[in-house]
Fold Iron complex transport system ATP-binding protein.
Amino acid sequence: MTSLTLTELAWTPPGHDHCVHRFQLRDASLLVGAGEFVGLIGPNGSGKTSLLRCAYRFSKPEHGDVQLEHQNVWKQSAKWCAQRIAVVLQEFPDAFGLRVDEVVAMGRTPHKGLFDNDTLHDQQLVRSALASVGMQDFEDHAFATLSGGEKQRVILARALAQQPQLLILDEPTNHLDPRYQLELLRLVKRLNIATLASIHDLNLAAAFCDRLYVINHGRIVASGTPHEVLTVALLRDVFAVEALIDTHPLSGYPRITWITQP
């Protein structure tokens, strides 16, 4: 089964000089095991998106290794990667007037030849993916007319239609109300495929992730189960906030209550 391994990644934004305070990824290593839902957390600007971009073959690392199925993704073709890795980003693509079903059908592109038409199997996968995210009644709607939350669910459906072996999510719940935040993460959890997700809401990360990696100033500073990682000391040191942490009375995962000063 598929696993993802990042080893000692280093990456610097293009156009930056070598001044002391520039942002860069440094010696970033992590593992996503087969069927594992791994969360990447950290403050804004800490390097979460940059690390994900290295993992899905968008930003080439200056140093280090990205292995999927024990293959270096940067030595494989873009099509090889697209057949195995699906990505859900914060930004929405330009749909150029496409309907919802046409956007989702784009997930089948890596598995088809240049002039291949959609097959009955492709159409069934599109319908199934839309049903999985509760958008089956929107097939013929224009993608551009949807709300932000609806668009996010369609983009997840496109990723599901891709039938990936690895799913990478960058802040997937940003545009969703609480109901669909929970439904989306439950769905991802049920997929039982290797998943790496940057998650802004630490309580959602605690509830759904098998393990967490914490990134700060471009470095991985902690990793482990949510109980091991989400401590008062870490939240103070990394996020510069005070919090109370107890155990959720129904589900047993860590629960964070922020301490605010009046």
